[in-house]
Amino acid sequence: MALLQISEPGMSAAPHQHKLAIGIDLGTTNSLVATVRSGMSTVLQDQHGHALLPSIVHYGEAQQVIVGHEAKVKQNADPVNTIASVKRLMGRSLKDIVDKAHIPYRFVSPPSDDASQGMVLLDTRAGLKSPVEISAEILKTLKNRAQAALGGELTGAVITVPAYFDDAQRQATKDAARLAGLHVLRLLNEPTAAAVAYGLDNAAEGVYVIYDLGGGTFDVSILHLSKGIFEVLATNGDSALGGDDFDHRIYCWILDQIRDANPSKQPLSEKDTRLLLTKARQAKEWLTENEEAQITCKLSSAYTVDVTLTAAAFVELTENLVRKTLSPMRKAMRDASLDLTDIKGVVLVGGATRMPHVRQAVQDFFQQAPLTNLDPDKVVAIGAAIQANVLAGNRSGDDLLLLDVTPLSLGLETMGGLVEKVIPRNSTLPVARAQDFTTFKDGQTAMSIHVLQGERDLVSACRSLARFELRGIPPMAAGAARIRVTFQVDADGLLSVSAREETKGVEASISVKPSYGLNEDAIIDMLKSSFSEAESDKKARALAEAKVDAMGIISAIHIALEQDGHLLNAVEKEAISKHIKALETALAGEQSRAIHDATAALNTATEAFAAKRMDESVSRALAGKNIDEVNL
Amino acid sequence: MRLWRKFYCLSLASVSQNYFKLFDLDQSFCIDLSTLERHYRKIQSAVHPDRFVTASSAEKLSAMQQATLANEAYQTLKKPASRAKYLLSLSQIDATQETNTAMPMDFLIQQMAWRETLEDCKADKDIAGLEQLATEMRQAAHLLAEELNRLFDEQNDLSAATDATRKLIFIDKVCEDINKAITQIED
């Protein structure tokens, strides 16, 4: 047995060994990676001392992929092959993208029988690229930066997503991490990450609002902070509203100005569009501390743009964008059943909250000055790193727990194109609901189910997540079958569905057609193409992975047996150790398939033990309380 | 969205686990909400999936189920209407069943009056009026909760408690509709 406790790099380690875990803020404009070293959270820099990695990917002429600052330089010269703000395209179809004319990319719908379905693709020099693949390039760059800085293999990463991201957007983010070869410990909502960083730093207690206006997304979350527990009470937002939209307003304003001066109404080239968007962003940033911004540049037609935008005009231009953030705030306050007087503080997150009129609007709404004593660019990555450190097991997690919620309601299509809500928004995760269905024809063996996400009553106004075909229902009289469909949203906010015919106890099989996500085959194809390795390498990698999994579970079960072995009788213990022995034999055989099967068998054999341990944890947790209460 | 390759039996409403017992509370309508909250947090601290990120998949699954149950139980006991409904269900009474006892006439009239005010305010886009109505409903809900205290814990009159619970569920539904109406007007 002692042999098994030897730990190897990347494998389940002794409790004292520090595991390398990172937090990644995968932003619309910039991305960051942070970690916790010797108890201190730090943002990791590249070799030039940059913490922020521009979320821009350039596909070069020599088939090279360039990410970050060097890609940003290529933006004006080669806009079609230089993708910025790809986060706005994650889990989105062509139909969802409103400003197509003002975005200099070549969008393509995926080959499908229905053009409104499937995630949009971008036609680049390197071929058709999915937003998932483009995001994976950014994640790979950050992963490499972290490995270089920390000097070792990473245990895993916490990746942040906007709280208001729907299931398709979350799944796309997780797929991107998988493509980048990152083990995702958890998807964490950005405002929650910010609350962790702020709350721990300032020992904050009470109800706080996080107002997070990023480059492309807006979130507002209301949290109750108490003794290291961060409980999200409500969240709301707009996953298509951010600093980019302010740039667009200025861009359109410039077009208006030069249209007056320049009557030739030729559409702008992709390069000119990119140039003016860049100028617009610079003007926006300049106006944060200045009263007017001068915008000058030369278009490809040799026409010179020379206009001046005043801060007052900018405020007027973007007033309704700022107003668009107020409605989610009101909704979140109402969902949390709170009054303004309940709010202890308002924390600003995201680069776009640097705009003075955004700050003023938040102050006017909450009737208190927002807290700005932290770097709005870095706070999310720092929070993610803190959570990654806890999840990896480096810090006793007893003092930190995040209870997050699902941002949008989940429902099913019913008669007449209406949606019936199954899981309401702002339900604390993890959450599950079961719904029973029956057949309407004699001998019916299949039925289809359409899952939607959103707040509206009409199917057409909600986002389609997937269509399911349930098969294998035992033939019965109409109405006699009882098919229980269970929806489970896990701690990452991702939905999974299972179904079972209750009267006969038959498991119904489900075939899924994800509406926007990539299916498993597509991901495997991408994984294959991203690893151009020989067949023998693939086998070696599969074997290594199977071994790591096997050693991990054996070590986890040994620890469990040590702690809670008393919950099992001799027969049960014997059954588990028989499976452990079988797995050890398989490990010696060096066959990945056999190791995999023996691991699965061991897992199944320990399910009842795991459930008993969980019950034991519950009673232990409450037994501890008596001592606390006496002490109080 | 991904699919479970294997079906795991999730025991939710059908569970043997009593929600009151889970949180170490006496089975009654009147509960100490701060104890409920404290015990809920303790349980989540012990079983939340975040505590089992590096554990075996059997333990991960078990943690998710236990944390899911704790959430469901906490939400059920936290709000008076769902707590009352749950208490009744423990005595095999389904408060939401249509065939259950009819509402008394005075409540039906009150019900129509509330609905009418709601529709009028909606038509006039009168947010202040809707908020006023919500306040009124909250007061009515508060009185009903006090009545339920007596009916459940002192008199053990489950038939009257069922009536009061149905009223409370109705009020909650109207409050939800008020919020929906305000949101629609604001948008």
Any chance you could write out the topology, listing elements then pairs?
The complex is a heterodimer of chains A (632) and B (187).
Chain A: E1 21-26, E2 30-37, E3 40-43, E4 53-54, E5 56-59, E6 65-67, H1 69-74, E7 82-84, E8 107-108, E9 121-124, E10 127-129, H2 131-150, E11 156-161, H3 167-179, E12 184-189, H4 190-202, E13 206-213, E14 218-226, E15 229-238, H5 243-261, H6 270-286, E16 292-298, E17 304-310, H7 311-324, H8 326-335, E18 345-349, H9 356-366, H10 379-391, E19 401-403, E20 410-414, E21 418-423, E22 431-437, E23 447-453, E24 463-471, E25 483-489, E26 495-501, E27 506-507, E28 509-514, H11 520-530, H12 535-564, H13 570-589, H14 592-605, H15 607-631
Parallel strand pairs in A: 1-11, 11-12, 13-18, 15-19
Antiparallel strand pairs in A: 1-2, 2-3, 2-4, 5-6, 5-7, 8-9, 9-10, 13-14, 14-15, 16-17, 20-21, 20-23, 22-25, 23-24, 24-28, 25-26, 26-27
Helix pairs in contact in A: 2-3, 4-10, 5-6, 5-7, 12-14, 13-14
Chain B: E1 2-3, H1 19-22, H2 33-47, H3 57-78, H4 80-90, H5 105-124, H6 127-154, H7 158-186
List the keywords:
heterodimer, A: 632 residues, alpha+beta, Actin, Chain A, domain 4, Substrate Binding Domain Of DNAk, Chain A, domain 1, Substrate Binding Domain Of Dnak, Chain:A, Domain 2, 28 strands, disordered N terminus, disordered C terminus, B: 187 residues, mainly alpha, Monooxygenase, 7 helices
What would you note in describing this structure?
The complex is a heterodimer of chains A (632) and B (187). Chain A is of the alpha+beta class and 632 residues long. Among the domains of chain A are: 243-321, Alpha-Beta Complex (Actin, Chain A, domain 4), CATH 3.90.640.10; 410-522, Sandwich (Substrate Binding Domain Of DNAk, Chain A, domain 1), CATH 2.60.34; 533-620, Up-down Bundle (Substrate Binding Domain Of Dnak, Chain:A, Domain 2), CATH 1.20.1270. Chain A contains 15 helices and 28 strands. In chain A, strands 1, 2, 3, 4, 11 and 12 form a 6-stranded mixed sheet that branches. A 5-stranded mixed sheet of chain A has the order 18-13-14-15-19, with helices on both faces. In chain A, helix 4 packs across helix 10 (379-391). The longest helix of chain A has 30 residues, at 535-564. Chain A is globular, with a radius of gyration of 26 Å. Residues 1-15 and 625-632 of chain A have low confidence and may be disordered. Helix content of chain B is 69%, strand content 1%. With 187 residues, chain B is mostly helical. Residues 1-15 of chain B have low confidence and may be disordered. Chain B has helices at residues 19-22, 33-47, 57-78, 80-90, 105-124, 127-154, 158-186, and one strand spanning 2-3. Chain B is globular, with a radius of gyration of 20 Å. Chain B has 2 domains: 19-78, Orthogonal Bundle (Helix Hairpins); 105-186, Monooxygenase (Up-down Bundle), CATH 1.20.1280.20. The chains are: A alpha+beta (632), B mainly alpha (187). Strand 26 (495-501) of chain A pairs parallel with strand 1 of chain B, so a sheet runs across the interface.
